[in-house]
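User: I'm designing a mutation panel for Peptidase C1A papain C-terminal domain-containing protein and want to avoid disrupting the core. Could you give me a predicted structure to guide residue selection? Please restate the sequence first so the numbering is unambiguous.

Assistant: Good idea. Sequence first, for numbering, then the predicted structure tokens:
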Amino acid sequence: MAQKCTPAHIAFVAASANEVVKPACVVLHWIFHGHRKMSFTANLHSVCQTTSNGNIEFSWIETEYNGMNILPKVRHQEDDSCVFQAICAGTEMAIKRDAALKNPPRTSDIEFNTNSFVEDYENHTNRRIGDEPLLNLPLDTREETGINLFHSSGVLATSTNWEGEQRVKLSRHIKVRQPQFDRVADFIRLGKPVVGSFPANRDFLTLGPDEIYEYVNREKKTIESSHMVLFVGFGYKGSLNGRKYLVFMNSHGEEFGDRGFGRVYFNDIFKDRLYVLFAGAPKIAIQNPNVSTSAPKREPTQDPDDRPAQRARLGDDGSSSSAGGKHPSTLGNLPT
């Protein structure tokens, strides 16, 4: 049975974390901020459960948001399209979350046409996916352009609310640079879809149901391939003091990992390529599905707590950045 999570439950903070005796007007700055961080962490821990293998974890796989399932169907990519698969899945999740917040709560059956999204990208850029490395383009070109197109022109989608396919737009997004684990986990806890990338090799494709993926070529300081997914949960290996990881929905069918889902250690994720997506179902179906996909570049909404991103690949502190160096391929065309 799915665990039910209401907005009130999602916003819950352990009462004991709030019961702090406040000194007089000389309360030290660090006491206030330390208490706030403890409350924030307690908020994350309060929704976690112990899994059968001893990890501490929360995910939307078995959890309902306000009585509704907000996860999209697991996709199965057949080409080099993980970026478009993840963005479409994340936008579907954003729409489902928006629908679950209605009074009364409802669901959404909107499904995006990923193949047409790829065609939009190729028509807009006048290049095929996979050409970016040959043109020496920035590493985030594909996802940035795709998200901008989703904002400006929408992507073709089906629904029982209209005939055929209509374009539905992404409302807005936040690009979170060099985030802390707790911040990313809190977006996920609130049901907000987060998409992001990490380095991948052939071992990734055989990830077991209970395994946590770890990129093993870190000492080379070069990334040959990267993969974008939708993050739907977070956890701690073995205990709340254990290594931190994220749960993701993959796009290699339900045969992958745990029914199409997997886990990856947070330290292996590209910290400068994480996006939080926002969208809602259109009140009136768009009548012209053939609108132009040519649009000027749109700047993302910046994370208000953003700090200047440190553009160093796989720095000494163990954090990952995809900037600089050789342009990696995506998982669809991993080198043999």
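For picking mutation sites, this is relevant: Residues 91 and 279 are 6 Å apart (CA to CA). The chain has one domain: 54-333.
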